[in-house]
Every structure is written in structure tokens, then in C-alpha cells.
What we know:
Blueprint: H1 3-29, H2 36-43, H3 47-53, H4 57-81, H5 86-103, H6 105-112, H7 130-146, H8 153-173, H9 180-197
Helix pairs in contact: 1-2, 1-4, 2-3, 4-5, 4-6, 5-6, 5-7, 5-9, 7-8, 8-9
Protein name: Transcriptional regulator, TetR family
GO molecular function: DNA binding
InterPro entries: Homeodomain-like_sf, HTH-type_Tx_Regulator, HTH_TetR, MT1864/Rv1816-like_C, Tet_transcr_reg_TetR-rel_C_sf
Amino acid sequence: MGLHERRQREKESIRANILDAAFSLAKTEGWASLSIRKIADAIEYSAPVVYDYFENKEAILYEISLNGFHCLHIELLKAQRKFETPEEQLTAIVEAYWKFAFKNKEYYQLMFGLGMQCSGKGMMKEEFSSFQDMLYDCTYEIIKKNGSNPANACHMSHALFSAVHGLISIMMMRNDDIPSTMNKTTLDETVSAFVKSL
């Protein structure tokens, strides 16, 4: 391995360590308490080294949120590919989204700015809207199959996304006074009613 390749590999390693340290700190202390100084201490480098790789904390958060959206996208595709009909696919996609949110709470909070500023404002990537796009596709196919007006697919799928995201947000921000089973039942009933309404 040449000197250039070795240096490049070292840079990639430090960059990955910065992101890993930031995510680990967020899991233990929360996103709000994250700072460049804490990240630097965790990887045993000085703060200027972190700034060599990321302009600011916002840039680190954005990079981590991108990874979260990528992971979510993979889970949604896996769920969708298990079924043939758009009704089954829609239900599976919502279920996968729900499970991802609570299995990866730190990611989800960062991705959607729950209890904090949403990272990456104005810097959207394809994965950011994959859930909404997949909901739309399933909704459109169900509407078309039922002979309803396809022009309603956008509005209807957005309403479902809002309901699902709203239930998740309520559980994450007020989980002490709302039973999780109540919200999951509400989710299942909402999806079932949504499919029947198309």
C-alpha cells in the first residue's frame, strides 16, 4: 500500500470514528447534549481535528441522519418485497416503518427533528422521501384497482404518512402516559380503515 492510500484510509477511519462517537454519545446522553468537544474527547483527538472533517456539529448530524434514512429505506424495501398486492405491501411498509422508529429511536429523532432541530435543512436526498413515495405508489395502485380517482392518491398517502408519523411522535415524546399497545392498535386500525376507504 502506498503512502497516499495509507493516508486516505486513515482519513476515512477518523471520519468514521467521529460519526460513531457522535452516535454513541447521543445514545447515552441525547442529541441535545452533543458537542464537538465531547466528540473530540471520545475519539481522543483535539476539536480542530474534528473540524478538519466536518464544518460543524450540524454537518455531523446531517451525515448521521443520512445513514438513518438509508437504513430505513433498506427495511422498507425488504418489507415491500415480501408481498405481491399493494394492500399487503402498504401494510407491511407501515409496519416496517413503525418497527424501525422504535428499534432505532435515536436515528428517528434526528431524522425528523423530534425534540431538536431537524438536521440537513435544504439538503434533501432521495432516501428522505422513500417512505412517502412507497405509500403513494401503493395507494395509487389500490385506488386504480378499485376504480377510484387516481388524482386522490397524493392527498390520501400524505394523510396516512401524517397519521403514522404523528402516532410515532406522540409515543416518543409522551411515552410515560400513553400505553404503547393503544398506539399500535390505533395504527393497525388506521391502516385497515385507510385501505378500505380507497
